[in-house]
Amino acid sequence: MSLRYAALALLSAQPMTGYELVRYFDDTVGLMWAASDSQIYPELRRMERDGLVRAKTVPRGERAAKRQYKITAKGREALRTWVSTPIPYPPQRDVHRLQITYGELAGLSEARALLTQHLDHYTLRRHQWSTLLDTIKTARFPLLRRRLEGTPPEMHSRILAFKELALEGQVAHADNEIAWARRGLKLIDELEAAEAEEPDLRADLRE
Amino acid sequence: MSLRYAALALLSAQPMTGYELVRYFDDTVGLMWAASDSQIYPELRRMERDGLVRAKTVPRGERAAKRQYKITAKGREALRTWVSTPIPYPPQRDVHRLQITYGELAGLSEARALLTQHLDHYTLRRHQWSTLLDTIKTARFPLLRRRLEGTPPEMHSRILAFKELALEGQVAHADNEIAWARRGLKLIDELEAAEAEEPDLRADLRE
DNA sequence: GTAGTCATGTAAGAGGTTACATGATTAG
DNA sequence: CTAATCATGTAACCTCTTACATGACTAC
User: Is residue B76 located within the same domain as residue B110?
Assistant: First the structure.
């Protein structure tokens, strides 16, 4: 159900077509809740069926048409309710941590590769999140501007504050994973050094 | 597919029945990769079909029977391959961060409730992870003992090192989320204080 | 005897992934 | 005219969730 509210959140800033929504998604809410276009189009239809959005068919060129979706009052209400309602935490599931738990089964160089991948992955994520954070802090994001234009000025600081808080959380998370991967890489170096100092042990391992 | 390898990892320590596996799960690998019993039993059958485990039917009391699963050589090999292979990162999905992103739509007290829930949740998780970490550091965990008994002594430090690394990652993650939730709660206090100082603003918001 | 634990599943459904499929419009 | 972009989906499959279902064993 989260996809529905991620989409609704975008539509609460301005009306748009499914295509535009798909485009915005990846740069904004998609950094918190990813979704593919094959998911988004059908969901928009369901939201329309449930009265959360209303679609207007607008001509596009000579022959084609596109559907522009606009959030309804019911949709705004549903979004507000969702945001205000505590959601149960999903079961813990982290493949990469599970993998490292049994790292002794891999060779040290394979384990090193896993942690290097982890480091690279979260470095990229950190970059994406902190980039968005910057554009929000300076209110350079077009969609955010539209949102601010549509709300009373007294609310502006709150709107910015919550978005910054969320993104700072993501950046901190990335930093944490980066630090962890480095710690792991250091650990592997130490394990390797310890082995190099004990030729008997190395002989044992080769058996 | 991760469920399969989480189960295989447990079975690589010692043979057990589906029921025992289910019990161990929640206290060990389940803290990294959660799974329900309704998932585990069918998966064990599929693993048997694929030759990763072999089941032996052992009598239980007079009339009943139970199936004890033992990892095969093929199973050990599959597990080692899985641990050594980098796994693509799943799409980012964090409902709670998404929710806070639009926190301005909720009231401040509702937003506070969300962050309090976050704090409580990760406090519990932190406790679970650090408890397991302690029992591992002191090698008090029975299953881990069995695992160590079944491996050459030179490998023992590695086995412990990787498990500690993984759990320390989880603990650090929990600490990070706890700190974030506290920062959020402080932010809400500040927003509230700022409003209290501006009676005009409060009047505006009441309209 | 009865409550708690041991033991093992099935079945319907939700949500997400991957691959496939199609065609108009516009900028160069 | 051709490539990129705009635009909108369907279908098969996989994984996980939730609810249901059953019954033997054991300690009291």
Answer: no
pLDDT tens across A35-69, in order? 999 999 999 999 999 999 999 999 988 788 999 99
Residue whose CA is minimally distant from D11 C1' = A38
Instruction: Tell me the sheet residues that pair with A56.
Output: A68
Partners of B5 on chain A (C-beta within 8 Å) are 98
Q: How near does any CA of chain A get to the CA of B69, in Å?
A: 20
> In chain A, what residues touch B77 (CB-CB under 8 Å)?
none
8 Å CB contact of B87 and A95: yes
Domain extent, residue B177, equals: 95-206
Last residue of a domain, one of B22, B49, B84: B84
A38 CB and strand C closer than 7 A: yes
Task: Please answer yes or no on whether B98 and A29 come within 8 Å at the CB atom.
Answer: yes
Structural domain contains residue B89: no
Is A78 in contact with A46 (CB distance < 8 Å)? Answer: no
pLDDT confidence bin for A203, thresholds 50/70/90: low
Domain count, chain B: 2
Nucleotides of D under 7 A from a protein CB: 6-11, 14-20, 23-26
What is the model's pTM?
A: 0.94
Contact state of B84 with A92 under an 8 Å Cβ cutoff: no
How many Cβ atoms sit within 10 Å of the Cβ of residue B187? 20
Task: Give which of B86, B100, B102, B107 is closest to B177, Cα–Cα.
Answer: B100
Residue B102 and residue A42 in contact, taking contact as beta carbons nearer than 8 Å: no
Residue B190 CA, nucleotide D16 C1', distance (Å): 41
The residue length of chain B stands at: 207
Reported residue count of chain A is 207
